[in-house]
């Protein structure tokens, strides 16, 4: 599921996981679509001001009709064009997003909390050198983010991602179909993020799993060492682990994976469960300091493949298992060392495994 890449701000917060918002106004199904085509055309021609005039009309109408998805879509568009035309647009957009948080509720609130977290994270990435050179400000968080140091900004980002998930049970009940206007459908992805909670949770996971934040607070607070990281999904989801510092980012990740897996254990279709479980196992394999991690990882994948062998989603499991057999970086989904040179005796087995995957799921 990908979004229009030429909308800079859209791509900023939507590139990792798509957001979906309540369905378009059924009484005027083509009205917004035509206006968006016009606005996009102006933007592609390098005419952001002309595009803004169209989008401001969309925004006014969407607010009047209480059409939340089109409202947020228009707000984001206007913020994205500001990035191109206004000085200090990054900080101004953060302030706008914070204002939207203060005036929002329900799913809209969760969305803006996650969007704002993404804006803070982007600000950090664009201003690392300034942030790391600043001295920490004691006491309360100052209003002007231009005075924040790296620790303050990253902590704020983390708090917002977690806040976006506070309405867990409510967000888990909101189906993908209700959030069409901001979505461009990808291939074979519909079942992987069935609820708004899934989308928000994976955005948070992407942030907390990033190694760069270890420069601020070492990851050693809660090492990925235990065999339980590779346990079966049901067992893993029920683990009760207590640590001295529950703010440790790897502990936060464990809890997020537990929540996602628990939510999908009883799904009719296992696609979302398999995807969440593979994300968990991949993270554990790449971060674990357990000397037996490769064997534990392969065993976990093997059990998963046998359980869901008849499901198309098992093709991904089989692929990861073949990759692990070749000492490749787990899943090929995260940064890691290049695969070792293959031994000749491994090649026939690899080819047979991959051919079998294609044969089963062409």
What does the model show?
This protein is mainly alpha-helical and 362 residues long. Mean pLDDT is 80; it is low at 1-27 and 328-341. The chain has helices at residues 8-14, 31-44, 48-64, 68-85, 89-102, 106-126, 128-133, 150-163, 168-172, 196-208, 233-237, 249-264, 271-287, 293-307, 314-325, 346-360. Helix 3 runs antiparallel to helix 4 (68-85) and helix 15 (314-325) packs antiparallel against helix 16. The protein contains 16 helices and no strands.
Percent strand? under 5%
User: Which residues form runs of ≥5 with pLDDT under 50?
Assistant: 1-27, 328-341
Using only CA atoms, what is the Rg?
A: 22 Å
Number of helices: 16
Mean pLDDT: 80
Kindly report how far apart the N and C termini lie. 21 Å
Helix content: 55-70%
Strand segment tally: 0
Sequence-ordered SSE layout with sheet pairings:
Elements: H1 8-14, H2 31-44, H3 48-64, H4 68-85, H5 89-102, H6 106-126, H7 128-133, H8 150-163, H9 168-172, H10 196-208, H11 233-237, H12 249-264, H13 271-287, H14 293-307, H15 314-325, H16 346-360
Helix pairs in contact: 2-3, 3-4, 4-5, 5-6, 6-8, 6-10, 10-12, 12-13, 13-14, 14-15, 15-16
């Amino acid at each position: 599921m990908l979004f229009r890449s030429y909308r800079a701000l859209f791509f900023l917060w939507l590139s990792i996981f798509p957001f979906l918002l309540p369905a378009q106004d059924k009484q005027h199904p083509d009205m917004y679509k035509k206006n968006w085509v016009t606005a996009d055309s102006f933007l592609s021609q390098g005419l952001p001001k002309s595009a803004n005039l169209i989008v401001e009309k969309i925004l006014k109408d969407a607010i009047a009709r209480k059409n939340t998805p089109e409202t947020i879509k228009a707000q984001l568009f206007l913020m994205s064009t500001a990035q191109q035309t206004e000085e200090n647009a990054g900080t101004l957009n953060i302030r706008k997003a914070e204002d939207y948080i203060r005036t929002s509720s329900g799913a809209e609130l969760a969305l803006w909390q996650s969007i704002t977290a993404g804006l803070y994270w982007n600000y950090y990435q664009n201003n690392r050198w300034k942030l790391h050179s600043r001295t920490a400000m004691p006491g309360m968080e100052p209003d002007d983010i231009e005075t924040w140091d790296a620790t303050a900004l990253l902590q704020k980002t983390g708090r917002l991602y977690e806040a976006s998930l506070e309405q867990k049970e409510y967000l888990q009940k909101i189906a993908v179909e209700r959030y069409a206007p901001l979505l461009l459908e990808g291939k074979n992805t519909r079942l992987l993020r069935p609820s708004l909670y899934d989308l928000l949770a994976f955005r948070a996971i992407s942030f907390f799993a990033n190694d760069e934040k270890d420069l601020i607070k070492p990851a050693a607070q809660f090492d990925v060492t235990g065999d339980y990281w590779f346990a079966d999904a049901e067992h893993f989801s029920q683990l009760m682990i207590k640590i001295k510092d529950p703010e440790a980012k790897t502990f936060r990740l464990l809890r997020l994976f537990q929540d996602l897996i628990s939510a999908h254990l009883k799904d009719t279709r296992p696609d979302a469960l398999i995807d969440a479980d593979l994300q968990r196992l991949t993270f554990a394999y790449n971060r674990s300091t357990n000397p037996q991690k490769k064997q534990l990882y392969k065993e976990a994948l093997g059990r998963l493949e046998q359980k869901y062998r008849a499901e198309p989603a098992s093709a991904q499991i089989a692929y990861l298992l073949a990759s692990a057999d070749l000492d490749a970086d787990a899943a090929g989904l995260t940064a890691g060392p290049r695969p070792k040179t293959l031994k000749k005796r491994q090649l026939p087995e690899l080819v047979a495994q991959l051919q079998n995957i294609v044969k089963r799921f062409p």
